[in-house]
Amino acid sequence: MKNYEYFRVELEEHIAVITISRPKALNALSTAVVTELETVISDVSEMEDVWVVIFTGDGDKAFVAGGDIKEMYEMDPAAGIAYSKLGNRVLSKIENMPQPTIAAVNGYALGGGTEIAMAFDIRIASSRAIFGQPETGLGIIPGFAGTQRLPRLIGKGMAKLLIYSSARINAEEAYRIGLVQKVVPHSSLMDEAKALAAQIVSCSPHAVRLAKTAINQGLEMDFQSATMYEAHVFGHCFTNEDQVEGMRAFVEKGKAVFNGKALPKSIPQN
Questions:
Q1: Could you give the CA distance from residue 88 to residue 90 in angstroms, rounded to a whole number?
Q2: What's the start-to-end Cα distance of the chain, in Å?
Q3: Could you give the C-alpha distances from 168 to 10, 87, 102, 174, in angstroms and in order?
Q4: Helix axes 146-154, 156-165, angle to 10 degrees
């Protein structure tokens, strides 16, 4: 496994755990960190033996506390645009990883921390987690697609409330408004995340990847076009031996064993 400056990647039973490790800076997102994150995401995306990805923060305080304010303080408009474009490109790569992804939010997830969590498929929060988009209190706006993903996840009105007011919310409120899917005791966060990952691993990795494709791509289409696209992706399932194994096991009242062969390399076209 490659060594990274700001990240650790641990592999176990088809699960990759990516940990951002800059605890003295509360895992803040400097340009160097975001640039290396792009490399990490590209590396893990290509690992065929990895069927689920978990992302979390190092230390007991922060998931990702936000962007690196000291670095941003020195930016001019051109540097601000470049930093935002970098962040948007990397978070888009996270959102479009072939594997299903889980953000295990272990503490402060502010600004870029909330934005990076939103790029993952599923968010599980520690009871200690704190979310927010505090950028307007600093004279800026969210720059890593926070103005776009947040209203899509929790609705336009609630997103405007949080962004305009620079408010922070706890894990239970994040769950209530639909920002996270589950809140668990802090001490059991990683156990819960790994249990969910293991449950996903027990399913066909081929089908799970295609389901992710159908959801992500379909949400960018009108409903009728999306259902037609789903039909093509559904048909693509029958090109892989996972479908044969899964249905054989069901008919024979046994347990399917999926091997992850011939994982989809490209998105089926409608």
A1: 6
A2: 37
A3: 31, 22, 22, 10
A4: 130
Determine whether 115 is an active site residue.
yes
DSSP string computed for 116-177 = HHHTSSEEEEETT-EEE--GGGGT----SSHHHHHHHHH-HHHHHHHHHHT-EEEHHHHHHT
Q: Which amino acid is at 218?
A: G
- The CB density around residue 49, as the number of other CB atoms within 10 Å, is 11
Q: If residue 10 lies in a helix (H) or strand (E), which one and from where to where?
A: strand 7-12
Distances (CA, A) of 110 to 80, 83, 191: 18, 17, 23
Annotated catalytic residue, options 10, 12, 74, 135: 135
The one catalytic residue among 36, 48, 115, 245: 115
The full 3-state SS of 50-66, as one line of letters, equals CCEEEEEECCCCEEECC
pLDDT at 270: 58
Instruction: Based on the residue annotation, tell me whether 135 is a catalytic residue of this protein.
Output: yes
- Per residue in 48-83, pLDDT tens? 999 999 999 999 899 999 988 999 999 999 999 999
